[in-house]
Amino acid sequence: xxxxxxxxxxxxxxxxxxxxxxxxxxxxxxxxxxxxxxxxxxxxxxxxxxxxxxxxxxxxxxxxxxxxxxxxxxxxxxxxxxxxxxxxxxxxxxxxxxxxxxxxxxxxxxxxxxxxxxxxxxxxxxxxxxxxxxxxxxxxxxxxxxxxxxxxxxxxxxxxxxxxxxxxxxxxxxxxxxxxxxxxxxxxxxxxxxxxxxxxxxxxxxxxxxxxxxxxxxxxxxxxxxxxxxxxxx
Length: 234
What we know:
Blueprint: H1 6-20, E1 31-37, E2 43-49, E3 68-72, E4 79-83, E5 90-95, E6 98-102, E7 109-112, E8 117-125, E9 128-137, E10 145-149, E11 152-155, E12 171-174, E13 178-183, E14 186-190, H2 193-199, H3 204-214, H4 222-233
Antiparallel strand pairs: 1-2, 2-6, 3-4, 3-7, 4-5, 5-6, 7-8, 8-9, 9-10, 10-13, 11-12, 13-14
């Protein structure tokens, strides 16, 4: 990935402000995103890593760090893309030395050749509004759709506080997957039985009984069973 020194960053900051009306956006891991427009027409952000701190970081930002061919917004052109589970952005390999972040504003549907399909969805969880790329799961053309969010969290370096405690290196750690159901235009994050019982109040008793009988693990592919059940009663 290209390295940029501080004077060049300052120059890019000026160009960015004058041309796009936006400043550089540094993230927690020493990256900057510069708005650009690719020749293909997909709106993107140039992603440049100018920090060496990540060298000693354990784990990975990715569930799958391999670039694979995919289309954007049901287009016909293929791009080498991968999903960054830490940043929540898709990355486009523009050249062997340059990786670009796709803008969420315009690129809301990503389809890989291997069948994986991501949709940019807005939802509310713990009273907070969120927006993420969700991976389509289960039966794709069902009345009740199922999605999966796999995200990575960053755990910072921790110094030892005594002679018995070891210092901990910074680490990327995969969180438990979060599943969603979509019905009648609503996206519902599902963490427990009551989430479904509230969402489908007319069938709450049936849902509660099914969840109990099947001993559903809400962080696993058991959610496909839930999807099938919901489609059978709605």
